[in-house]
UniProtKB/TrEMBL annotation:
The keyword Transport applies. This is Alpha-soluble NSF attachment protein. It holds the Pfam family SNAP. It comes from the Eukaryota.
Length: 184
């Protein structure tokens, strides 16, 4: 295991000189089990790709490296990949990573809900609803926004945000465009 880590470090030093091949070096750290180091190498790869107009896949690889060690870093890198894919018009890839982000936010929301940290759970659910709306799954987004509003009513600090959540649900209802906006 330590041999693989040492090999990864040697390759990283060579890559600093060459500025090419970061994906190969990051995979060496990943195989050795040092996922944090692999993630940082993939970030360097993404920075190199920024110059080459292909950073999105590097950010996705970074997210996969951080998946087991740092959920925050994983989600942040997935969001970066998602926004870049949307900018360059690769919508199918953006949708794929959007679905992955939804599942991670769902897990985080469940954890926060179990610990009774309603504010953080609601923030995760807001991101879920936002991604669902971007995927044009408006009915699910409406349900999530309404759930957030119901939970917020029970908390004195969160009850002032209920209007905003219901407004977002209403906007999703309008985007759905089924003509049934009164809930009949």
């Amino acid at each position: 295991m330590s041999d693989q880590i040492e090999k990864g470090r040697e390759f990283e030093k060579k890559a600093d000189k060459m500025l090419n091949g970061w994906g190969f070096f990051g995979s060496k750290f990943k195989y050795a089990g040092d996922l944090d180091q692999a993630g940082s190498v993939y970030v360097k790869l993404a920075d190199c790709h920024l110059k080459q107009n292909e950073p999105a896949s590097a950010y996705a690889d970074t997210a996969h490296s951080y998946k087991k060690t740092s959920t925050k870093a994983c989600i942040a890198n997935l969001e970066q990949a998602l926004s870049i894919f949307m900018e360059i018009g690769r919508l199918s890839m953006a949708a794929r990573y959007c679905k992955q982000a939804i599942s991670y936010y769902n897990k985080a929301s469940d954890i926060f809900q179990g610990e009774e940290v309603t504010t953080s759970a609601n923030q995760c659910k807001q991101k879920i609803a936002q991604f669902l709306a971007q995927l044009e799954q408006f009915q699910k987004a409406i349900e999530v926004y309404e759930e957030i509003a119901k939970q917020s009513l029970n908390n004195n600090l969160l009850k002032y945000g209920v209007r905003g959540h219901l407004l977002n649900a209403g906007i999703c209802q309008l985007c759905k465009g089924d003509g049934n906006t009164r809930g009949e």
